[in-house]
Amino acid sequence: MNRTNLLAKSLYIFCICLLLAIDANAQHMAKPKLIRERGDFTHVKTQSLFPAILNEFERTELFAFDKQQDDISGTYVSGTGKNSIDVNVYVYPAGDAFDTRFRNQFKAVVEAIMLREGIYMSPVPTHIRYQKDGYTVNGFRSDFSANKKNTMVELYECGDWFLKIRVTAKNKSPEELHHISTQFRDYFNPANLVKHSTLTLQSTVHVAPAIMKDSGMAYCTLGSMLTTLEWYIKNVDSVERLAGVPNQYLLAQLTSLKAFVTHADSAQGNVKLPANIAYIQDIKKLMNAGFLDEFLMEINDMMLIYPKDWKFDYRAYDIWREQNTISIKPNVTYYVIRYMDMKELKGKNNTQ
After folding, report:
1. Which sequence spans correspond to the domains of the chain?
2. How do the residues of the chain divide into helix, strand and coil, expressed in percent and rounded to 5?
3. Which CATH code fits 23-94+96-159+161-196?
4. Are 5 and 230 in contact (CB under 8 A)?
5. What's the pTM?
6. Please, what are the averages of pLDDT over each run of 10 residues along the chain (352 residues)?
């Protein structure tokens, strides 16, 4: 398929201000509501069962964070005193499937734990992958040690849903907490969440209005965006893309920025605005120094998926950054890619 046809079939380009993705349908309550159910409880939208007993763990609390009971958490406890183990399981709407959705949510999860526990240095996240029934679901995990206890949190991007598992214990190692979380992950099964509400492989691209004031920058942005979508299709299996936009791949982001520079070079000076010129110069500076991958890891909070044999030199990068100014802001982008979900796609088809 050529680039023109791919663009026509895959994209609907809208020029909008970049906003945080929110779930417009959920009516969140100011205070979580206790669900008074002693037996097994079924999360209606996903058919996820929160059992009263799971192995040696007893469910002690069940809360809803919205009126529809879409946003649910269950607390499971095993043991008492110093030997107690707490497991919190959350199933909740993931919101619009923007390519920044997963990173932003995991960052918020980690920062909430750091704030509660008084931790000042963010742990380096670990990529984890769940595969079952032909589906591939990506997740990230972080480990914390503070206040004489260990905590582990995992987050999985499951189409229209997030699955979060947090395990806390005083007398368990991080490896033991991982083993416990695996039991709960396998029971709640991220692949089943994807099955109940997959994304589609049709995309919308939201472009910052500011680039339309600079024809050269618009050319670079659209070229970069199209190259990124082509990379997704060629390198990420379609069933994995049903669970989330694969923006967390380091190679996808490297490919995107390199395409941006290639199109800037061919724009022959048509990029006019000083801020846009500085952006391109900064990317080139990082590429020429050989630190574009370290920079991408930094601005993505280390939350990227990269090949096992990939080599980083953060010490050299830190020295280089002290001597060189980069003006690119981590949360500033010229476009975001969003996957449609099945409900939205059906509604769009019905209006045509």
Report:
1. 23-94+96-159+161-196, 199-351
2. 40, 30, 30
3. 3.40.1000
4. no
5. 0.88
6. 40 34 45 93 95 97 94 96 95 94 95 92 94 95 94 97 97 95 97 92 85 86 93 95 94 95 83 86 96 96 95 97 90 85 62 52
